[in-house]
Structure of P-type Cu(+) transporter:
Amino acid sequence: ATPTAVMVGTGVGALNGILIKGGEPLETMRKIKCLVFDKTGTLTNGRPEMTTVCLFVEQSLCSIGRFLAIAGTAEANSEHPIAMAITKFVKETLQIAAFGKCWNFVATPGYGLRCKVSGVESLADAYEARDRVSNGMVSPSSPSKVVIDREPLSRSVSPVSLPGSQSGSPPTYDVLIGNRDWMRQHNIDVPIDVDQKMLDQEKKGQTAVLIALNGILTGMLAVSDLVKPEARLAVHTLQRMGLDVLLLTGDNRQTAKAIAQEVGISNKKVYAEVLPSQKADVIRRLQKKTIKVAMVGDGINDSPALAQADVGIAIGSGTDVAVEAAQIVLIRNDLLDVIAALLLSRMTVRRIR
Ligand code: ADP
Ligand code: MG
């Protein structure tokens, strides 16, 4: 395109909340044959809400209050969307302003976190005293209707105690929160009834994470992240325009498939359980098929893939790292702007021919 065409194209884009960083992405965009969407925060709104709390052990071993206080205290150190959902829910349910003590915190992208936690007794006790849990549901004063499942699993002959939870010195917990692989990496077996409980949520497009305390698989939390209202229309239109639309996520395969189905992406086009470090590799492999590939994403974990793609498109509300790595930024966070960017590219370049 001529400098004038580029100026007009980027100018029209900017007026419409589509930031195009120069002539190259404007020209390349029209050659894109394959469009890869990240899931969390891109196809979904990225602000998941808690839906389910499951305790796998007897109430006497770990109460709901204690379980939530520990999970909240641990996740307060993470910036993952799942962590946001958990900490928000725990704060509201336990009616607390601050969490317990947490140290030795390590988060491994794509898997989960591990840390030590103490000082949760008073948080849990206040909650239990209020007895806000009734009939398996959080009482109506709780903001969201979260199902609380306290039925210990059949397989789990509950151990007599959680090491560290005895009276005496203040209890300290070794906490693991994450997916199945995270548990297995720490030699914690995930039995089939637990796997099934996770699958039940995942088939609904939710994400379930497991929690182990002092080496004992104690419970599960599930969160639901809603698909953006325009996602389905955007995907459909892009497909009608002849683009191959794919989904790329670090999340579990079942969850990814459910979300893909919701927006109209076929199962064959789903790349799930891809570690943040591998997202760019997937783009590279697609490019080997000699097609121009665009990636739409929002997270830190998307930025290498955004940089690798022929055109990286960042959601404006996304992380700074993603916005920097991308060549096009959608300020309005509207997925239909991907189509607008495509049309803008096609028209701008055609006009100067
Ligand atoms: P996404 O592509 O959806 O952003 P990630 O690669 O960030 O996924 O994470 C993949 C999976 O790792 C999550 O679905 C979750 O099971 C687990 N995980 C990551 N961080 C956390 C956390 N802070 N707490 C619990 N689980 C986590
Ligand atoms: Mg994301």
Remarks:
- The longest strand covers residues 216-224.
- The two ends are 8 Å apart (CA to CA).
